[in-house]
Design brief:
The protein is an alpha+beta fold. It has a 7-stranded mixed β-sheet with strand order 2-3-4-5-6-7-8, sandwiched between helices. It has a 3-stranded antiparallel β-sheet with strand order 1-10-9.
Amino acid sequence: MDTLLQQIFYVAAAVVFAIACRSFDNRFIQKLGWLSLLAASYLSGYFLTGTHVGGGIFIGAWFMMPWLEIIFRVRKLRFPIKSEIKHRFPPSREIFPELDDLSREAEDAGFTEVGDTGWKWSQTDHFMRLFYHAEQRTQAAIALAQQGDFGFSYVSLTTRTKDGTTFTTTNYPFAATMKHSPKQRLNRYTHAASFEDLLARHEDFVHSQGVGDENLALQDTEFLHAYIERDMSAQIDHNINAGVIEPTGNGEFRYSWRGCIFLYWQVLKDMIRV
């Protein structure tokens, strides 16, 4: 009995330590929390089976759950090949409390609000508030993605060149769910401390690609939503050609088995990165 209680305390201590680490706004401490959670899983398997193999199986379960989610749920989903992006009313403060603060940060950085827009993909509802910085020729989007009771916000900054290439810096918290088209360049900066921090990283990203001010395309603010719609269509066409997704008829597509493997690898990279 004493041994059992001791084992429970070991596992509980590892879990509590993991939760405490994950509450910190420091990615290295958060990584330590993830390792502690894996340690708790290993100890649970080891104590229940009395073997290291059991501990390894419990750790492996963390990496198998995403695959099961992909093949049993995601592959069954259907998405529209052509998405209509149109005017949307902003969510309530209860749903998107940081919208006003982020909007003020964008305006303080010299951006002008253009309007609210959005679209729906299967069970996911996207809202975006668009901004434009005329001098820098850069578009900003403050977004909220909702799926049932789960939702997350992010900010994206996009600069377009005269040859049709787009450069985007975003703090979107998850790996891309599709491949980017040849003219789409993405820079993920998930640990941006503020809008200004993300903007500085975006400027560095664009300059590092050898793009000068003379190469930047002037964007018509009345058609910012149309640019996003065009980018999405280009990405979908590229992924159909790459075999990541496949048309199912009725103007919809689903993930192919190759696409499921791509999604799983993206999830694994995020898990390892975290």
